[in-house]
Structure formats: structure tokens, C-alpha cells
């Protein structure tokens, strides 16, 4: 095997508060995701670490996924954000993050995965569609997400709800 094309292994783990700034920068630099405050990512990394994952390669954060169990329905997983660094895209990292996320013990009783994805975020839509196909699950897209009118910033797109049922 040609060692020039070998890539260092990706390490998947739960985030810590020291990852929050790197997650925030990855979101900011993605150009696709709505950036939240850095404080929000600190909260996610401290209080929701068990339902989130980061992907690292040689100490560099190359991807992450944030999610949580719905307080109203503990069988429902909401995937808040998922992103991969431009330097690591096309390597299956987002797919692995989503698969590993659903293998977490906290999600063993999950019956659904939900996310909101704007119509122009084609890569995220394709990710969730492929995830549903691989699991033999039903994917539905509805207007039960968040309409553009609810967002205070001008120009925000609708965020239709994607629901994957197992």
C-alpha cells in the first residue's frame, strides 16, 4: 500500500469544554451552519457531552455532531448540528459521526432521529437520506420545523423538519 495516500486514523470521542472553541470556529468557517454563541458550545460540551461527538485526526478537530434527547419524547433524538472541516470532507466522517452517535448507550431506545435542514443545504440532506437508507428507515420531510419568519435575522431560509423513523 502506498503510504503517501494513507491517512491518520480518526478518533471519535465525546467533547470536553476545551473543544468548544474549536467547534465554534468549525461552525463559523463552514458557511453552511448557523453559528451560535461560543457560550452555547461551552454548554453543549459540558452538559450534553454524552450526546455529542467530535472527530479528531492527529489532534485536529475535523468534525463534530451535537444532539440531544427530546425532553418531551425520550425516544426522539434531535441532531442539532453536524459539520466536517473542509480539509476532511468526502472521507465519510459525517456518516461515521452519525452512525457512532446512534450507537451511544444513551440512544439505545431511540425510535426516531430528527433534524431541521434548510433546502439549500444539500450535503446535509443527502447525509440524512443515506443514513435512513442504510438503516432501512423511513425518512419524511415536513413543514413542522421552523419557518423563515421565526428567525430574527433577514434572509434566513425555512428549516423543514427531517424525521427518520426506525
UniProtKB/TrEMBL annotation:
InterPro entries with a match to the protein in the record: Acyl_CoA_acyltransferase (IPR016181), Ectoine_EctA (IPR012772), GNAT_dom (IPR000182)
Keyword Acyltransferase: yes
Keyword Repressor belongs to the record: no
Domain N-acetyltransferase positions: 10-153
Pfam families tied to this protein: Acetyltransf_1
Its EC number(s): 2.3.1.178
Swiss-Prot/TrEMBL keywords: Acyltransferase, Transferase
Domain of life: Bacteria
One Gene Ontology MF term: diaminobutyrate acetyltransferase activity
Pathway terms, separated by semicolons: Amine and polyamine biosynthesis; ectoine biosynthesis; L-ectoine from L-aspartate 4-semialdehyde: step 2/3
Enzyme superclass (EC): transferase
Gene3D superfamilies named in the record: 3.40.630.30
Protein family membership: Belongs to the acetyltransferase family. EctA subfamily.
Protein name, entry field: L-2,4-diaminobutyric acid acetyltransferase
Organism: Paenibacillus chartarius
Species classification: Bacteria, Bacillati, Bacillota, Bacilli, Bacillales
Name of the gene this protein is made from: ectA
Amino acid at each position: 500500500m502506498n503510504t503517501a495516500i494513507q491517512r491518520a486514523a480518526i478518533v471519535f470521542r465525546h467533547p470536553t469544554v476545551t473543544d468548544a472553541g474549536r467547534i465554534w470556529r468549525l461552525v463559523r468557517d463552514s458557511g453552511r451552519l448557523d453559528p451560535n454563541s461560543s457560550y452555547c458550545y461551552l454548554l453543549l460540551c459540558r452538559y450534553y457531552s454524552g450526546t455529542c461527538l467530535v472527530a479528531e485526526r492527529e489532534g485536529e478537530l475535523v468534525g463534530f455532531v451535537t444532539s440531544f434527547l427530546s425532553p418531551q419524547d425520550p425516544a426522539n433524538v434531535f441532531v442539532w448540528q453536524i459539520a466536517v472541516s473542509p480539509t476532511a470532507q468526502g472521507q465519510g466522517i459525517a456518516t461515521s459521526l452519525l452512525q457512532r452517535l446512534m450507537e451511544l448507550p444513551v440512544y439505545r431506545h431511540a425510535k426516531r432521529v430528527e433534524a431541521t435542514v434548510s433546502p439549500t443545504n444539500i450535503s446535509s440532506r443527502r447525509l440524512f437520506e443515506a443514513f435512513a437508507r442504510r438503516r432501512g428507515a423511513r425518512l419524511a420531510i415536513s413543514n413542522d420545523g421552523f419557518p423563515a419568519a421565526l428567525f430574527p435575522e433577514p434572509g434566513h431560509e425555512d428549516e423543514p423538519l427531517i424525521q427518520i423513523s426506525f
